[in-house]
Amino acid sequence: MKFSVCLATGYEGLAYPIPFCEPQDLISVGKLCERLGYDGVWGNDHITTQNYVRQIYPQPPNFYDVLITMAMIAQATTTLRVGTSLLVMPMREPVYLAKQVVTLDHLSGGRFILAVGLGAYREEFEAWAGSRYPKARRGEMLDEGIAAFNALITEKVSSFDGKYYSFKNLELFPKPKQNPFPLYIGGHNPESLERTARFGRGWLPGWRPFHEIGERIQIIRRRAAELGRNPDDIEMAPQFSLHLGKTMEDAEKSYMKTGLVAHRVSLAYTGRDPKYQVTGNLVGSPASVTEQINTLARLGVDHCSAMAVAVNSYSEYLEQIQWFAEEVIPHFK
Questions:
Q1: Which residue from 17, 179, 206, 320 has the fewest beta carbons nearer than 10 Å?
Q2: What is the CATH number of the domain that holds 199?
Q3: What is the domain extent for residue 243?
């Protein structure tokens, strides 16, 4: 089992107070996670304040570009994997995205993972798009973006002519250092499962009740086999919230006081019932969380990735990362 932490690249206001940390703290956390034995750190991707966050905070949150942040952390570390959880692909132009990703892959020595998705909040897309895409379907944009990206990183000369994106006779070099390149797919709906089975080197959904995670893993593995792929080539890497307490009761009580709860409620429209957000995440004592992870391993999870540390201060964030590394990770190494 692998373990990695999500940084506060785009979590101010959504899960953490404003302000939460300084930009250099993101690099410090990456270096700390490498020392503590985590497999990687990830960053989420936001561009503007969500509507519900504006109702809570008068001050806008600080959102940092996830690719630049991961490049800085890769430069400051030697073995730590760095990734996006998730990069909102419909809001990225594919040619320059591919150039940035390949550059980061080489500069990191092949330690970069690109995980992509639709983006949780359509209002962000609409603010970014303006009048350019008045009737855009983000799922179609994601599918085109994945196809264009794969062409750019694998073909000597690539062309693409889609509904949203187009380029012609383009040579993009160098190609990624990692071959095959680790493109992970986010989301938990049927379309996301199909994308993962077809193209993904990993599946990185948000949390679901554990039994649903297990059911979706089996769907992906079965579909990948039908498509002629080896299901073992796809890493199952769901994102969970993390909050430790001395007892299960203490953990649940303090977790429910964190800002991450409102974020989970705001995402209820995706089908994730907030009443299961404790039992469907890594919330509890070190012993109970260890048993939860054992359950996830039996369901086919390979990686507890991009764990969102549920806290209300930067000092608590560091304490939780250290506590988990000392009392949970050793059971799986």
A1: 179
A2: 3.20.20.30
A3: 2-332
